[in-house]
User: Fold these one by one.
Assistant:
Number 1:
Amino acid sequence: MRAFIETAAQALLEESSSDEAKTSVAFEAVIDVHSWLQSLEVGDAPAGLALDRVFFSMPLLTLTQCANYLNFLETAGVSHESVVKNSATALGHSQGVVSAVIFSTAKTAQEFVEIGVSVLRYMFWQGLRAQETYQLLLTQYKQDGKNIENAGPMLAV
């Protein structure tokens, strides 16, 4: 699990540090999971960041779900291969579908890590683009005088 988190954290750092990400109107901060894990207390969020924003939440939810699954494997003393072999299906609700796809696609533990990190990179970009779209729609709705009181970026996904 730790190796997955380290690899995933590095992937998010690379993607969010790219010039393309930094020039986005939705860019808020580099996603430095490793630094956050080293410097923050449990339950704390990095100062000034709204982690519920889709820019952060899409990749971080995927990371958390995959890490929780790997922790389950370690705690239960079972392998990914044996769980897959004894499973008929994988289910997920909302963004949990993404983790279910990773689970069901990976035939080995190594594939789970590789596919998980690859999908995590994708989720970063999907979150960034969804945030961009939301901000554009929000501006347009305000200009049109539409009521946007309960609007949220997840609706743009």
Number 2:
Amino acid sequence: MPRLAKHLAWFAVAVLGAFALSVVALRRGEAINALWIVVAAVAIYLVAYRYYSLFIATKVMQLDPNRATPAVLNNDGLDYVPTNKHVLFGHHFAAIAGAGPLVG
């Protein structure tokens, strides 16, 4: 998808969210469908996820995919052991009581 089309799609999501918020704000004293609130919230979450998370990743945290993790730097075979990301997510979900039997 071309870059301009992506920006136009995100602009459309932002306009939809602004319209939903304006409906909620301007309908004083009348019954408002809860769908307007849900649409506004989802639009705000999507725009924030796309742009604010990019700002956090690049400017605040300065994430670098080439940087070595502590498991690689401090590999002692006990506490710090490099592992596959799928195994790591499996251990994360195994700690949740409901998903424990699924992972093993």
